[in-house]
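Subject: design request, 327 residues
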């Protein structure tokens, strides 16, 4: 107890619980009994996942512990492979933040800048993307219909603005990842679950994603996004190819959060122009564990995919920041 302020010590507790919903009706009834207002009742009735959110309020659980009280604002996170990110409109109480961890979880470091609000806001940002021409982002100036050409150009500008903002957000998130990893020492797979960007790297190397690695990764990511702002050059090393993948992950998340209507193949189009090949994708395959050693042993001419070579330039014409080379 703080004797001067008379307030207790605030402690954050992260708990992950896996559950199977075996009786949706019983879960719904439990959620209704815990709901604080009619909006929460409607929310609980609408879907079993929503009912789980209401029924498992950890603040209510904390209130029954001796010597502990729940602290507002309430915030909790439910992890589910099939869950969708909570929509801002679905957060009914002003003092409650409901977040579902899915493929695209709505989570940000505290200092991330506000996102553009409208589609036009993203398009306006495209004027700052001088390194990528519209045709590199899907614009087809050979379309016969003028309306389709205009739509194609607008789509390319939308993607450009999206990549610009994603570049800003990803840097903030990487700084947060570095801070987290510094506090953990030897990283674990569980630590990766708490990162924003590093968690998007090949998971079978999770035990090697230290704070120093994240700092080196940050430098190649900054270098990559500078090329978007200025003069584009393809990625210089495997780590930078992975940084581009992380950037596209971020852009995809932001697009979904903003409700932007993008062509289904927008990401494939961007990858086709910005990546010389997709060999780095193989690093995500658990079935190909160790393939990078095999490639080196047979001398295929493909860039080394071994972890210790991720930051090495592909050839003498490519360069990476000096810090990335100092391990």
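Subject: RE: design request

Done. Sequence follows.
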């Amino acid at each position: 107890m703080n004797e001067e302020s008379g307030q207790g010590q605030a402690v954050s507790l992260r708990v992950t619980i896996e559950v199977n919903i075996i009786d949706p009706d019983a879960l719904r009834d439990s959620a209704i009994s815990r709901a604080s207002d009619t909006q929460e009742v409607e929310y609980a009735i609408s879907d079993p996942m929503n009912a789980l959110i209401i029924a498992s309020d950890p603040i209510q659980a904390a209130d029954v512990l001796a010597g502990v009280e729940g602290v507002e604002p309430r915030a909790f996170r439910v992890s589910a492979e099939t869950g969708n990110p909570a929509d801002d409109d679905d957060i009914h109480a002003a003092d409650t933040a409901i977040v579902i961890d899915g493929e695209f979880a709505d989570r940000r470091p505290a200092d991330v800048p506000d996102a553009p609000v409208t589609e036009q806001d993203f398009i306006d940002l495209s004027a700052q993307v001088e390194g990528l021409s519209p045709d590199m982002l899907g614009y087809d100036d050979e379309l016969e219909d003028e309306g389709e050409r205009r739509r194609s150009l607008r789509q390319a500008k939308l993607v450009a603005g999206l990549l610009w903002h994603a570049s800003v957000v990803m840097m903030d998130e990487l700084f947060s990842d570095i801070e987290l990893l510094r506090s953990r020492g030897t990283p674990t797979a569980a630590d990766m679950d708490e990162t924003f960007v590093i968690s998007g790297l090949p998971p079978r190397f999770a035990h090697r994603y230290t704070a120093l690695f994240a700092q080196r990764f940050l430098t190649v990511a900054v270098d990559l996004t500078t090329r978007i702002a200025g003069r584009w050059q393809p990625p210089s090393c495997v780590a930078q190819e992975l940084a581009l993948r992380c950037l596209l992950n971020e852009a995809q998340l932001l697009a979904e959060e903003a409700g932007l209507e993008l062509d289904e193949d927008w990401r494939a189009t961007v990858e086709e122009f910005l990546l010389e090949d997709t060999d780095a994708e193989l690093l995500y395959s658990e079935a190909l564990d160790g393939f990078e050693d095999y490639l080196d042993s047979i001398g295929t001419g493909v860039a080394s995919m071994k972890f210790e070579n991720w930051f090495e330039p592909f050839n003498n014409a490519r360069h990476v920041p000096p810090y990335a080379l100092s391990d």
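The chain is about 45% helix and 5% strand.
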